[in-house]
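Hello,

Our lab assistant flagged a job as stuck in the queue for most of the afternoon. It eventually completed. Since we weren't sure the result was trustworthy after the delay, we are filing this so someone can double-check. Below is the sequence as submitted and the structure that was eventually returned. Let us know if re-running is recommended.
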Amino acid sequence: MMTPLQQLWALGQSPWYDNFRRSYLTSGRLQALIESGIRGVTVNPTIFAKAILDSTDYDAAIRDLLARGAGPSQIYESLLIEDITAAADLFRPLYDQSEGQDGFVSIEVSPALAHDTAASIAEARRFWNTINRPNIMVKIPATDQGVPAIRQLIGEGININITLIFAIDFYEQVMEAYLTGLETLAAQGKPLNRIASVASFFVSRVDTEVDTRLTALMEAARSDTGRRELEALRGTAAVANARIAYQHFLATFAEERFAALRENGARAQRPLWASTGTKNPVYRDVKYVEELIGPDTVTTVPQATIDAFQDHGRVARTIDQDVDAARRVMERLDLAGINMKDVTDRLQEAGVASFVKALETLDLAIRRKREALATHVNP
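-- returned structure --
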């Protein structure tokens, strides 16, 4: 009998694990997740900082690096590359079996480089060449400076996970960068059948921001009818935004431009639903998984969401369910005074800032661990 995660795959959606630490490799936990239906994994500084602070997984490696005189940034990169390499090797059989469709492990370019095109390109190349595994993806944010980096790196045959997408207009730029990169590869006579990319839409944060604005409007509303109309919009923006984005995906990759690339082995750049953990306890705890299921998509799930979905998740194709209703949600939000461009601009700005803060937290975590272990290195 298939698990709910395996049922997602039967409908064409790949569930990826949004969590990681070294003991998941050594204990067999990650292998068990693969067997239950997980088909990829993503790592970021927030996840890594928590793993270092909340476990002893990295103590021996940090002691060794300290003995060799490594600083915090060197320690972070060394641990990260070692983990990503090992995880990629664990997922390699799935990558081979799926002929490059899944089995990916994502590694993130430093968030501090989100607004530096050249530096993002250089770090992505370094990660790609150092790890030297075909089933890694380098994560780059969808900023104004990130988009040209995406185009360049795809054109060099490097797998890219574009992160921090909130707005449809940015998504259009991301798909354009991917197609242009593929065309660069094709013009050079290079194979297209192993290049892969996902476009990561952050979901639950949209509802968090929109709901906050709706609450303010409800407090200022002059009638009970107005308040009820605003209340009915709570928790609707994120799914509507993602469903509309999926329609843009279908339209773009059905065009003749991609058809020519597909004939040479190119794959569509799949939409990925990120930030799927439910932040508002009023909403169903698997809301952002259940309501965005469909073919040629990826969903990234943290452990709590996996547990909930495996326990009581409902599996059915929902991603293209009532798209007209999704568009009406956006129209009603606009009429209510919610400017979605302002919402998504603010979310992207806050997302980059949050990623940078996570990097600072990671640096602090390594420094604290270094202080705690220093006496054991030089007694």
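-- support follow-up --
The delay was a queue issue, not a problem with the job. The result is valid. The beta strands are 13-17, 40-42, 104-108, 136-141, 160-165, 197-202, 270-274, 297-301. Residues 340-377 form the longest helix (38 residues).
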